[in-house]
Amino acid sequence: MELVEVLATDLRAGILPTVTLARLADEFELVRDVYEAHRVGADVADAWHRASTHPGCASLRWVASAWAVAHESGAPLALVLETVAADIERELELVSEIESAVAPARSTALLMAGLPLFALGMGSGMGAAPVHVITETAWGALAVSIGSILAVLGVVWVDKIADNAERA
Known about the structure:
- This protein is mostly helical.
- The protein has 8 helices and no strands.
- The protein has helices at residues 2-12, 17-27, 32-40, 44-51, 60-73, 77-125, 130-136, 138-167.
């Protein structure tokens, strides 16, 4: 987002794209190819598309599209990039809200997985011999096996639900 904001601000201020891209190439390694493409007259939009394939840079595809439209139609790139920067900011806020929304579910799943250990400690503290029951009796071993399987499945299930919510 910072990269797009700087690019939009510089272009709006009348700074040439070559100067802005050169400065950004020093700050952001992924802009180097874009700067080189602009410097030699290659397809800058395609260079932005390649930069958008880096992890965490998917929003740069919008910059690529904006650059292509501005190049083809002569539309003011700075105004379009300001809109793109605002959209990226909204997208980041949405991702943050979704992560915040699923965090309690993930925490609850981990808490539920850890409760049996707490119960063992509590049972031992009360004088009942839960460790003896689960290690020395068939029913105890069966209960631990089934409980462990269910706890793992529960954590995986909640994690999968949270991942799907984050991707949507």
